[in-house]
Amino acid sequence: MSTWPDTRILDLLGIDVPIIQAPMAGATTAAMVIAANEAGALGSMPAATLSIEQLRAALTSIRQASTRPINVNFFCHQPPAADEERDRRWKALLEPYYRELGADFEAPTPVSDRAPFNDAACQVVEAFRPEVVSFHFGLPEKSLLDRVKATGAKVLSSATTVEEAIWLEQRGCDAIIAMGIEAGGHRGMFLSDDLNSQIGLMALVPQIVDAVTVPVIAAGGIGDARGIVAALALGASAVQIGTAYLFTPEATITASHHHALRHAQASETALTNLFTGRPARGIINRAMRELGAINPMAPAFPRSGGALIPLKAKDEAGFSNLWSGQALRLGKDTSTYELTRELAEQALAKLK
Ligand SMILES: Cc1cc2nc3c(=O)[nH]c(=O)nc-3n(C[C@H](O)[C@H](O)[C@H](O)COP(=O)(O)O)c2cc1C
After folding, report:
1. Which of 319, 323, 322, 321 is nearest to 101 (CA)?
2. Alpha carbon nearest to ligand 1 atom 6, residue
3. CA–CA distance, 8 with 46 (Å, rounded to integer)
4. Rounded mean pLDDT of 7-12?
5. For the domain bounded by 8-77+114-253+327-351, which CATH number is listed?
6. Is 174 near ligand 1, meaning CB less than 6 Å away?
7. Would you give the DSSP letter of residue 186?
8. Average per-residue pLDDT for the chain
9. Cα(92)–Cα(89) distance, rounded to whole angstroms?
10. pLDDT tens, 322-342?
11. Which atom of ligand 1 is nearest to the CA of 47?
12. Pairing of the two strands 185-186 and 216-219
C-alpha cells in the first residue's frame, strides 16, 4: 500500500498504514494486535488490566506470531492514598442497589485495580523491547521514562488539550495522540481535571498540530475512511481507532457490552466517573442514569469500581462500564484484519 500524503508516522514507527489499533484494556487481545499488525497497522497491547505474568504471556504470543512493530500501552497514574471514609460513603450510596439486587452488602468490598507503570512493568519493556510504548494519563516519572527510551522504543502519549500536547513534547514524546472528546474509554487528561477543558477532535487536532513539531495521531470518533481522511486533512499524520475494533471477533467484551454497542444510538454515550473514579466515555446504563454519570462521591481512580463489582455480578448491563466512543453506529461485524485493510484501502482511494 503506498502514497499516503504524510509518511512521518509510517517512517517513525515502521508501519505500512497510518492506523493504530487502539489499546483497549479489557477488550484488546493478543489476537487483535497480531491481526492489526498483519494488515500493516500498529497493533497495541494494553497492560492496565493485566498482571505482569499475563502481560509477558501476551507479548510472548505476539512476538511468536509476528515480527512487525508493536505498541505496549500503560496507564501512568499515581495510585491514590487509602480513604476509607470516602469508600464507606460511596458504598452506602449504593446500598439500595445491593438490597434490591440481593448482593451481600456486609461482605468485604472487592478491589478494583488498574496497574500503573512501575519497575516491574518497565522490566517487561526492557525484556520484550516493543518498538513503541504508549502511555495514558501523562508520562511516568523520569527515571522510568529514561529506561523506556534507552530500549529504543518510540514513546507516545495522549493529549486532550493543547497544553498537554506541549507538555508531552517537552518531555520527549516522539508523537502525540490528540484525543478528542468523542473517544471511548478513559479521558487521557492529566494537567487538569476540568471537563470543560475537553474539546472535540475537529478543534483539537489542528491546534495541537500548530503547537508541536512532532507528528500528531488523531483519536476519537473515527470509525471509517471518511474520518481518517478528515483527520489527515486537519494535519494529523495518523489515526488511532478504538471503538470500531470492539465489533471484531478479536475483542473480548461481555455479551452486555456487545449488545449495547449494537443497539445504542450515537447520542447515548456520556462521560462517567462511576466505574473507576476517572472520567471515561461509555454507553449510558442504569448506574449512570440513576447515580448521575459524574458523581463527586466516587472514590479516586481506580478505587470506585470495587463497590460496583457485586452489583455488576447481578446486573451486568446496568452496572458495568460499557466503554464506547461516539462513532459507535459506524461499527461493523468484521475481523480486525479486514477492518484494518478496508479502512486503509478506502481512505487511500478517497485521497487520490
Ligand atoms: C473499551 C476501551 C478501552 C480503552 N482502554 C484504553 C487503555 O487501556 N489505554 C489507552 O491508552 N486508551 C484506552 N482507550 C482509548 C483508546 O485507546 C482510543 O484512544 C479511543 O478508543 C479512540 O476513540 P474511539 O473509541 O472513538 O475510536 C480505551 C477505549 C475503549 C473504547
Report:
1. 319
2. 24
3. 24
4. 97
5. 3.20.20.70
6. no
7. E
8. 97
9. 5
10. 999 999 999 999 999 999 999
11. 8
12. unpaired
> CB of 76 closer than 6 A to ligand 1?
no
Instruction: Give the model's pLDDT for residue 254.
Output: 96
Beta strand pairing call for 43-46 and 70-75: parallel
| Domain ranges (residues) in the chain | 8-77+114-253+327-351, 80-113+265-323
Cβ proximity of 105 and 43 under 8 Å: no
- Averaged pLDDT for residues 302-312: 96
Q: How confident is the model at residue 131 (pLDDT cuts 50, 70, 90)?
A: very high
44 CA: nearest ligand 1 atom: 17
> Is residue 300 a contact partner of residue 269, using CB atoms and an 8 Å limit?
no
297-306 burial code (b ≥16 CB/10 A, e <16): ebbbbbbbbb
Three-state SS for 252? coil
Question: Is 73 touching ligand 1 by the criterion CB < 6 Å?
Answer: yes
Preceding amide of 302 cis, omega within 30:
yes
Q: For residue 75, what are the β-bridge partners?
A: 116, 136
Q: To the nearest 10°, the Cα dihedral for 22, 27, 29, 33? A: -10
